[in-house]
Amino acid sequence: MNYLKGLCLLLCSFLSVCLSGQLQAQSFIHPGLLQNAQDIARMKAAILAKQEPVYSGFLVFQAHSQSQNTYHMQGPMEMVGRNPTVGQGIYDADANAAYQNALMWALTGTQLYADKAIEIVNAWSSTLKSITGRDAVLMAGLGPFKMVNAAEILRYTHSGWSAADIERTESHFKEVIYPVIKDFAPFANGNWDSAAMKTMMAIGIFCNDRPIFERALHYYINGAGDGSLLNYIINETGQCQESGRDQSHTQLGIAHLGDCAEMAWHQGLNLYAYADNRLLKGFEYTAKFNLGQDVPYVPAMDMTGKYWHQRISVEGRGMLRAVYEQIYNHYVKRMGLAAPYTQEAAEKIRPEQQGLPGADHVGFGTLLYSRTAGSDDINTIPAAPAGLLAQTTSTNGNTISWVACRGANYYTLKRSEQKNGPYTVLAGNITSSVYQDTKALPGRTYYYTVSASGKSGRSENACPVSITTGFPAGWKAANIGGNHRSKGSAVFDGLQFTITSGGTGIDSVQNQFKFIYTTLKPNGIITARYVPQVSSQFSGFGLAIREGLEDSDIQAALIVKPELNGQPESPGWHTRLFFRNGKDGTIKDIASGPVLSEPVVTFSRLTGYYWLRLQRKGAIISAYSSVDGKNWTKIGSINRQVKKNALVGLVVSSGLASVPTVVKFDQVTVY
To answer: Quick check: 69 and 112 in contact, CB under 8 A?
Structure first.
């Protein structure tokens, strides 16, 4: 058995390439979620001086029933869930109270508030074992965000919280909350994704876990689902993915993105400015419409392929949520930019009340975020850059980008061909947060890291990113089928293929899909593992053996695809073996596996890993699948002679004419 040119393509996640030494060196700033030490000091001084509007905001916060140290805890419970509802209101109320009491402790110094917050966090962290239901991701992305923020304040304000309780709470967040949100929610409207992102980012900071933090940050800037920044605020006008759904959910989604940006700011990263202040554009558009003015609207389909809104929705119009003070005070007071509609919305509901309903928002922004102009200067060494992304072409090399650092004057990019280094300087004095490495050789895998320099010194190195220039040796990409409007892209990071493709299908007479391929000998096997989760809920993906790159060529394909039956929210996912006869173009459905279930599919969503295999032995092509990579189930076989030097590889189609899907494969081997 020979590996194709010695290549065995194995994946662990992107984050596993982070150097262990660098991870240990990259410390987080604490407290550093929605409030840092500077914020707490600013609020305390304003309250003492009865400075407006902070003091009015504090009076609202102080009077709230969940801000009382006499609050009667409603939980804890061993299980909570959403759709069906199990203790959702109980958990959310206690999470609100934990956060509000922790903040009251930080602002007043009254120990009873700290004791109440500690009581609530300890009770839930020692009791809650599972989060269930069809909407579990949303359940885990909302209330727990408040709980993590409470824990962060308590841990870093000398509250008397014991080391043993802190350790148990860390484990609780990582073992109970994080597994529910770790793959986000690309099957849903974007507010689900953004809720998962902000809670994941908070867990990463509180637990001092750089890979978790980076996972959330990468999804924010480059995620496949509706909730990543550029998929949620879909154009430069500020139109949002849910603008055509209703105004309540739209405000929910952008507010979650704002919370991510505030936490990143406290960690020294200017996520607010990403993509030319795209977040501000989303807030200005939404505020303007909800203040009664007209805004442009372009009909758009979302990334799942399920939601197509022809016009902006008036449902909930004018019902301003308590989300505007944070954004107004950042862009106007911190940065000196104009945000007239966000400002008007903030002023209209000032002082902000608690964010409602349940634990959807923190709210209380008049207290939490009001500041004087220019009151957040940076005079420290910049934080390490984060969120490194790598794109590649075989002709122009590799393009590396990152989230800009606060206080950085320039950056230094370093490169290695080994993930553990040594790293050599590729370029210095870079003044933007992007660099093109035109000297990268085709087919070679590189690792990149970057540091930031400011007037006070140089940062630590960023968590590295890896990329193979073009593709691994012997591998190529092609778009199969005519009228392929969404051609997409494909990259290999040395461990994992990430394939973006539109196209209407892989199993039809008129194929449209992306094919990442190499050559296959007469006797050979290709194996690959699907990495969750897929974005378009109409996606088809899998493995194929083809005689060529023309649409009419002979093709055997093992495909995972949905059976919608008029229910796009609840498709049945199947593994099917197809054969296309090159002479007459007929398609034969050779065999079909059973409807996929747990652990691969939960609630009709592809949430688990899944292995696929095609084996060619003479004229026999056999298809297999596995849920663990060890025990294989035969799907079926085809007895058909295919020419000696056939092509074999990965196939992806979104199932839609113009909306792409993103599918990831690892553990790709060709014997």
So the answer is: yes
For residues 665 and 530, give the distance between their C-alpha atoms in angstroms, rounded to a whole number. 5
Residue with tokens 């759904």: 245
For 51-125, strand residue ranges (E) read: 79-81
Q: What is the token pair recorded at 381?
A: 């060494």
pLDDT in tens, 171-197: 999 999 999 999 999 999 999 999 999
Calpha distance 52→404 (Å, rounded): 33
Q: Residue 267: what pLDDT? A: 97
Rounded-to-integer distance, Cα 546 and Cα 356, Å:
55
Q: Is the dihedral of CA 594, 598, 602, 606 positive or negative?
A: negative
Residue 472: how many CB atoms within 10 A of its CB?
A: 21
Which amino acid, residue 108?
T
Q: Which of 470, 449, 468 is nearest to 460 (CA)?
A: 449
Q: What is the 3-state secondary structure (H, E, C) of 294-336?
A: CCCCCCEECCCCCCEECCCCCCCCCCCCCCHHHHHHHHHHHCC
Distance CA 471, CA 497 (A): 9
End-to-end CA distance of the chain: 6
CA-closest candidate to residue 258, choices 352, 325, 333, 183: 325
Q: How far apart are CA 533 and CA 488, in angstroms?
A: 17
Tens of pLDDT, residues 545-570: 999 998 888 999 999 999 887 778 88
Please work out, in degrees rounded to the nearest 5, the angle formed at the alpha carbon of residue 157 by the alpha carbons of 156 and 160. Answer: 100
Structure tokens given for 253: 């989604």
- What is the DSSP secondary-structure string of 548-605? -SSTTS-EEEEEEEEE-TT-TTSPEEEEEEEEE-TTT--EEEEEEPPPP-TTTEETTE
Can you give the length of the chain in residues?
A: 671
Structure tokens at 467: 């990329």
**Average pLDDT of 301-314?**
96
CA-based torsion, 481, 485, 490, 496: positive or negative: negative
Beta strands, E only, 220-301: 300-301
Query: What's the predicted TM-score (pTM) here?
Result: 0.94
Contact predicate 253/214, CB 8 Å: no
Nearest to 144 by CA among 111, 186, 179, 114: 179
Please give the structure tokens belonging to residue 533: 């989760």
Other beta carbons less than 10 A from residue 567's beta carbon: 11
Q: What angle do CA 313, 533, 526 make, to 5 degrees?
A: 140
CA atoms of 149 and 147, how far apart (whole Å)? 5
pLDDT single digits (tens) 421-463: 999 999 999 999 999 999 999 999 999 999 999 998 999 999 9
Nearest partner of 123 among 97, 88, 157, judged by Cα: 97
Q: What single-letter amino acid sits at 482?
A: G
Place of tokens 């020419």: 643
